[in-house]
Write a structure and sequence with these properties.
Strand order of the largest sheet: 9-8-4-12-13-14-15-16-17
Largest sheet: 9 strands, mixed
Structural class: alpha/beta
Radius of gyration: 21 Å
Helix content: 25-40%
Strand content: 15-25%
Number of strands: 17
């Protein structure tokens, strides 16, 4: 729809329409990843609709694009199924991510645009649907991209792509659970993940509205983010969720979920089920301000349930109440007294892996930086991949994670591309001791490594 405006295209997501509905010591804990049948999850036969593109014409309209270079279709495919079929699913999930399912709208603006809307550059702000509508209306005439966004989804897609290479072993079964609305954006989100071999297992919330993040980038590469939570703050725990978790090898909890008091209670239940069924529990720090606001909640989960923590240097220091001048290696060592495996990234300075009070330095992988957004997400996928593929040493696992992160930093966009994932996975197969080690990592092995 070459002549359509941004407002016309966004009527599909209903931000302005009249029928809009608002809405003890753990360092000795065994790390055991149960074996998996690695059955491939088949693509279901569903009814699809095409979400029309809104293209620019003489500067008066906008472009809705899909921000995944590896997708074959130019149009956005919407999955309109009302529920999720749990037939033909694999016997086990290698990794299940629990996080916020939000669609990203990203566009380039100037400083005057931010000033006109009263937005502070470089910040992240939670907005209501009226504020979201006001910003999207102001973007009418700007080109922008739509993507199934989120830190956790970046990690899961990268892991699925690394695990999909035939030379790296049986394909990894990767899934995500969260909350999407029964609207076109919810279908968009589910379909985009499925096309990247990540299954979204949660049924859409009837009459719910899928969360969105508007990402406004200025010429100095600073990002101003406006998050509309929609249904993304709601995690439904029922018998279906319990069954999925009981068949999961590694459960990854996204730190942004700690922003919601009711969700924290659900997280505790889910973590307990995961522990009872022998799964590893990983927690992503997500954001310094999120840690500061929910410090006690984070520590309760980390002390009682977490086997793995992913953080950057600022987040790690915040967990430890260290000053900004404290070295990340000190924070890594401190955290590893409480969590069996700690992964701390420090940008171009490199990264650290912490185990039992010790920290191993991982040098950065050389690259020419293009876009640092998503580097930490990519690094986490490398660590998870190494665990599932039976890495023979932490240095090799960390080096792979660093190479994955460098690959994403050296491109435009936050997603690891299929061809790059195949190259990285192929290089890593030579660092695995034997297939029998895959999917079995214990605390005794951690000490020896």
């Amino acid at each position: 729809m070459a002549e359509s405006t941004l407002m016309a295209a966004l009527s599909l997501v209903s931000p302005f329409s009249t029928n809009y509905r608002p809405l003890s010591s753990l360092s000795t804990r065994r790390l055991v990843v149960p074996s998996s049948s690695h059955a491939r999850y088949p693509v279901r036969s569903t009814t699809h609709h095409r979400m029309p593109l809104c293209s620019s014409s003489n500067g008066s309209s906008s472009i809705i694009e899909d921000d995944d270079e590896d997708d074959d279709d130019d149009d956005v495919v919407l999955d309109t199924v009302d529920d999720v079929s749990f037939s033909n699913l694999p016997d086990r999930w290698d990794v299940l991510g629990l996080g916020q399912a939000m669609v990203d709208f990203s566009g380039t603006v100037d400083d005057e645009f931010l000033m006109r809307l009263g937005l502070e550059k470089g910040t992240r702000k939670v907005v209501n649907h009226e504020e979201r509508g006001r910003v999207l209306q102001a973007m009418d005439g700007c080109s922008y991209k739509a993507a199934a966004g989120g830190s956790l989804s970046n990690t899961l897609v990268a892991l699925a792509r690394l695990g999909g290479h035939p030379m790296s072993g049986a394909p990894l079964n990767v899934a995500m659970a969260g909350s999407i609305g029964g609207d076109p954006l919810g279908g968009f989100y589910r379909t985009k993940l499925r096309r990247a071999n990540v299954s979204f297992l949660s049924a859409p919330v009837k009459d719910g509205t899928t969360g969105t993040v508007i990402v406004l980038t200025t010429s100095d590469a600073q990002r101003t983010m406006l998050a509309y939570q929609g249904t993304s703050s709601y995690i439904k725990y029922d018998s279906s969720m319990e069954s999925i978790i009981s068949k999961t090898n590694i459960l990854v909890i996204e730190g942004y979920l700690f922003e919601f008091p009711d969700t924290i209670k659900t997280i505790k239940k889910i973590c307990q089920v995961a522990r009872d069924n022998g799964a590893l529990v990983a927690v992503t720090a997500s954001d310094v301000t999120c840690i500061e606001r929910h410090y006690d909640d984070f520590w309760e989960i980390m002390e009682n349930y977490a086997d793995i923590v992913f953080a950057n240097s600022d987040e790690a220091r915040t967990f430890c109440h260290f000053s900004s001048g404290e070295s990340p290696i000190s924070a890594t060592r401190y955290l590893s007294h409480f969590v069996p495996l700690v992964s701390v990234t420090d940008g171009q300075q490199g990264s650290y892996i912490g185990v039992k009070g010790e920290a191993l330095y991982i040098p950065p992988s050389p690259c020419t930086p293009v876009d640092t957004c998503g580097a930490g997400d990519a690094y986490a996928s490398g660590i998870l991949y190494g665990l599932l593929r039976g890495a023979s040493d932490w240095k090799g696992m960390g080096s792979l994670a660093a190479r994955v992160a460098a690959t994403v930093v050296g491109q435009q966009g936050t997603r690891l591309r299929v061809q790059d994932a195949a190259r990285l996975a192929k290089s890593f197969t030579f660092n695995v001791e034997s297939p029998s080690r895959q999917s079995d990592v214990g605390s005794d092995q951690i000490s020896s490594l």
